[in-house]
Amino acid sequence: MIASFALWGIPDLFSNTGGRAVVTIGDQEIDVVEFDRAYGQRLRQMEAQFGQVIDREQAAAIGIPQQVLQQLVSERSFNMHAKGLGLRGSNRQVVTTIHEVEAFEGFDGRFDRTAYENQLAQAGVTPGEFETSLRNDLMRRQLVEALVAAKPAPDTLAESLFRYRNESRKATILSVSAQEVGTIDLPTEDELRAAFEVEKGRFMTPAYKMVAVAEISPASVAKPDEVTDEELEEGYAARLAEFQTPELRDVDLVSFGVNDKELAETFVSRIEAGEPFDTVLSDMTDFQPDEIALGDMSHSDIEQDYNTKVADAVFALTEPGLSAPAQSVFGWHIFRVRGITEPVNRPLDQVANILRQEIAEEKALDAVYDVSVEAEEMLARGAGLQEIATNLQLVFEQATVSREGLLQTGGVVQGAISRHLSDVWALEIDEPVMLEPTDDGGFTLMDVTDEIPPQQRPFIEVQDQLRENLIAERQLAKAGEKAEELAQSLRSGEPIATLAETAGADLLETDWITRSGIGRSNQVAPIVGRLMFQMAVGDVAVERAASGDGYVVVRLDDKKPGNPQTDAAEYEALLDSLGTAMLNDALVQYESALRKDYGVEVNTNLLQQVINPQGAL
User: Fold this and answer.
1) How far is it, in rounded angstroms, from Cα 482 to Cα 575?
2) What is the pLDDT of residues 451-463, one digit of tens each?
3) pLDDT tens-place string over residues 379-396
């Protein structure tokens, strides 16, 4: 259903007006309450979509209020016009549409009033508000469908576009590798030094910072040997659930609607009377046996998905069988228990070492906190990081390191500095020592004591790299010359296979490649594919290889346009998309005309107060 047309870039008509209307369309107004409700609903939709809280400041930064406003203006404009044309959304249409929404169905696949109200409540909408909005949507839909019915069928345009997009071509390609061009003149020292002078900027050391990190954690000061047997036993009892595999039930689930308790009881009665389970399932539901299998579930799994009463009914069974019907907000449920897996406890002697370390770390938390307080006091007195680390017996590391973790002395930084590299590198030399808590209950102290800007690397250090670069450049240039010679010979009529054999070049005859398939074919790189569609049949062209280490000589052998008759499904899809695009263009123009006819005025001051009430104070 097309519900709004707000995001198509219709220009805004802003003005500063008084009153409590956020926007006025003709003789109708959208007030603060309506806008704020729509804005809140959009934020909840975004939070559900992205799985995170989005506050109004964040939403305003990406233009959400303006999108919501434009949507409201669009809907109201079309509503006003549709009403003026005598269009209406009937009660029957509203009821039929609601009953067709899958989210409002119960487990039996039919409309469920409770599910309907629950879904609307979660969206922050009352049934009355939803039905009014739906009625307006249906009214707008009639208007849009009238435009759809009148849209021109763009057969001529579609055929031309299809033939162009689906044109296919094939070529023969010679590949000349820079590594296979034979001997070249090696660069002299004078040439290397000249290249160095030109490319000095490429041969710089990274910026370095001399950083220091000190840290302490419960694990580093824990003393597991001091944990007593009594503490170990108490800890085991308190954490027993951690060392226990819960009891499981291998279950199938049959569900009925919230008002179908009698059906659920009849289902159980027929099974208990001796009828085969699969027969009753097929007779009373639309499900197959493999569609109701949930597999192994614990008591907490069922409790979380349904409720405690349902879970208790399932786990009341001491052997495979049917549970009594139990009710949740989703309906009435019958579980068939197919198997029972008893709980398994890991004995204390198997987990003693792990548990002893955990208890020791918990006991060390207070000691770590006390050390952090002492560290803060020493910082306040002006003590340096190394002094603090020495006095408090902290792990202390110092190194001169780049942002990427490269040591000035060579190698890659490890240990505490590596763990906190991004944080410590963000510090400046004149900033105070940073004290940061860590997730494990410890803390880290970080400091920058010196900064070393990028330095010019000496010629002697980079001459080998310069030599490799110059050799590669000369090999590539020679490959280009060789490719041009092959291209000229090919244009002169020499057989391409003979040229390939004589030059030692790789030869490839491509399959048919479509214009829309450029970049999707594994045969040729996109740059070669695009070149093929710029050439005339019989033309020969030279292009740099996509790998960068050679050239290719391309001869276009043949081409053929796309054929709508042989690719009917793809052609129909294109025809449909063109029709939709043309309809969208028409709707944009239609709405623009409506806005011009009705007149749209936005109260910018009031809008800003609603969007950012704190900033308006």
Assistant:
1) 47
2) 999 999 999 989 9
3) 888 888 899 999 888 889
